[in-house]
Amino acid sequence: MVKVHIKFCIFATEKLNDFMYKIRVILDTKEDVIRTILVNDNINLENLHSTIAKAFGFAGKEMASFYKTDDEWNQFEEIPLFSMEEVGEGVSMQTCILNETLSKTNNKLIYVYDFLKMWTFYTEVIEISTENNDNLPQIILTVGEVPSETPEKEFIAEKLDDGFGNDGDNDNEFDNFDDFDYNEY
User: Fold this and answer.
1) What are the beta bridge partners of residue 65?
2) What pLDDT does 178 receive?
3) Around Cβ 112, how many Cβ atoms within 10 Å?
4) pLDDT digits (tens, 9 = 90+) for 45-101
5) What CA–CA distances, in Å, run from 72 to 78, 132, 136?
6) Which of 30, 114, 5, 102 is nearest to 65 (CA)?
7) What are 142-151's pLDDT values in tens digits?
8) What whole-number distance in Å separates Cα of residue 46 and Cα of residue 44?
């Protein structure tokens, strides 16, 4: 009989170069309310959520989501604070790492904080550097004050052709139901 010895080695790999992200966050209001923050590239989006909320004076305890966007801020896939899917499945802020989600300069996310009030922020990577800074996260620019009331939002939907050919339909077709004699039937 031959004895085989198998050694399992676990190598701890340390990332040699951490990158520092400079992120500009703009509150969707009429007045300019802007924060520029510095964060490590290897944090998850849950940490970014907390950093943004605190930078604008919020406790960070309300529900929130990030939304992937294109260069024109069109909203796409949601990244919620918590996944509502089975354990281990689905996307959440905790499972998304910043440098994977926003891999290059000018990448953007929309951040919505507190779904009852709908505070909306435009988040953009404005610089990625190899500078070392042990005091992260850090707010490096503050412009404007957060309003006491949530700005009003106007949700406008595009009028879509439903394919039913409703051109010229008479919307008053059923207005005379009060005059209908149901006893005849």
Assistant:
1) 80, 112
2) 65
3) 19
4) 999 999 999 999 999 899 999 999 999 999 999 999 987 777 767 899 999 999 999
5) 17, 32, 29
6) 114
7) 999 999 888 7
8) 5
Tokens of 114: 């507190």
What the block records as the tokens of 68 is: 């992937």
Residue 68 pairs in a beta bridge with 109
pTM (2 decimals)? 0.73
3 state DSSP class of 101: helix
> Six-digit token pair at 116?
């009852």
CATH 3.10.290.30 for domain 20-143, yes or no, is yes
Which tokens belong to 110?
């929309």
CB 139 within 8 A of CB 35: yes
H or E segment and range at residue 127 = strand 119-129
| Alpha-carbon span 97 to 101, nearest angstrom | 6
Residues paired with residue 69 on neighbouring β-strands, in sequence order: 75
